Amino acid sequence: MLKKINFWGWFSILSVLLVIQFLYWYVYRSNVYAFFYSLKNSSHNVVNEYNGNLKLYSLNEDAIRVETIKNVKARGINIIVGPNFSSTGAKIFQFLEKYDLVSFSPSITSTKLLKQTNRIISMVPTNEYQIKSIMEFLKEKNVQKVLLVLDPFNKEYANEFLMILDVFEGKYKYFYTVTNFSENLDDYDAIVLTLAPKYASDFLWYFAKYYKGIILGTDSVFDEILNTLPTLSNFYIVNFGFKSYDWSNEAILKIFDILSKHKFISTNQFINFLLGHDIYDGISLTKDGVINKGIKIVNFEEFRKENR
Known about the structure:
single chain; 6-stranded mixed beta sheet; Rossmann fold; 11 strands; 5-stranded parallel beta sheet; 2 domains
């Protein structure tokens, strides 16, 4: 004959269920993160190369939609590693707030975007700091006239560099392909590229061999594809202190390392953790929630020799 379960019996059953649920979250769910990669840089290689403890729900940010964000939340995920580009961040940040998600980006630098929301946190400094370093470098090189070659596919990022023209004489042009780009480069003392790696490589292969002035690539240019270029002694790059061509992948792995060492129950806990601790190597966020770390502008050929 079946007996009624008394209060303590129900209490025991519920306690066991709660323990099982907690263990399931701690062992499995707490290690699941969304990962936004892109085919426009080498971040897509991480999908197949990562063999750590985190379980990644990988998505192509180049094809991101609102439904993608909703689906991430529906899976019980609170934290996204990525996106890589400011243009993607600008598309999704309102939906991160709506669905209570937070994005930890390896490479977004748009000053406007990062100061607009605390739902996107980046591993690298904003364009504000980068642009100051670029202008100081150009002044040291006695540059008078500058051509800005801007990325039309990432205007959220690229257009912030227009403030360089508040200080230097020059103009800007968007770069789509080598066949439809027309400009007398010899009219300029320096060219500043804000392109994605593939487009920067196309530009450099086609135009750099004829140009004698300074060519400077912003952080967006820096990628392993540059190693295929011929010798370019007049080419300089912005370096955030990472050691490899795939610096954004290096930043992604640092994010994975941070996430693997901690458990985060909520997005607010995660945001408060980042605001209250060193993120890595003594680097921390400012009160505005952005990183202010050393920025170097290095000669590409010297960097290439050091990293062979």
